User: Fold Amino acid ABC transporter permease from Candidatus Scatomorpha merdipullorum.
Amino acid sequence: MNVFSQLVSDIGSLLEVYWLAYLKDMGNTLILATVATVIGFIIGLACGILNTIPYSKSDSPVKKFFLKLIRAIVRIYVEVFRGTPMVLQAVFIFYGLPYFTGGEMQFRGTSGLWLAAIIIVSINTGAYMAESVRGGIISIDPGQTEGAKSIGMNHFQTMTSVILPQAIRNIMPQIGNNFIINVKDTSVMFIIGFTEFFARHRFITGLNNMYFPSATIEMVGYLIVTLTASIILRWLEKRMDGKSSYELVQNDNITMTAGTYSHPNRGTPFDERSGEFGAAEEERERIRMALKNRNGSTRGER
Assistant:
């Protein structure tokens, strides 16, 4: 019990002095993770679309060559950045640029660190998102693509109006998962000197050697952020799903003229029992009853 009391006391003393620094660097982590996830999604979306452009034997050799070349480039990019650790990618990008340019090009100052961190995390995220987007696109029923083409849509219109809205909804869990991973994986940016939440922990423990109390603060902080992000992302998924029950559109002229629509009060112009022709139907029924009564009375008199 004394150990836990000491832990709470140590955490309190750390927060008393460094709470503003912890909060600021957690903000840096959130900004970096959010921006990198958005940019990575855009990169993955572009790669996923380019990787699924169809071609046939009847297409020109030039078109087939360029499409195959694009797919090869995308595949190399995905395999390289998915198959290597982000910390090494950070080293290659941040230190490799001045190495190959003789020091003429390098990331300088705070803005340079931010730019380098965003580029590193975005490119890494884009490699994972490229495969997620490709999987989301090919998961859509091919019949929808055929139906879009049958009404005159080209590939671009089919992708933007039919396929992508459904594919993006299908991969929303992966997008959220990548964001949560980025919140945690930005901790490797200390390797280039970028100050984020984990870098603050390293700095503080270097001053007072309170490793475990500071690590406890870090664990709780990361957990709060990731749980909040999960709740928000699930809410977004439900919003994208729409309502659980749907009503038939009441002003669809195509459906009405096709005779498959039944207005709650009028029916359709082709429905003999609809309210629109109710008066005529009642008149016909009255005439039939009158003829029936007259014929019946005539036979009775005979």
About this structure: Residues 2-241 form a domain with the MetI-like fold fold (CATH 1.10.3720.10).
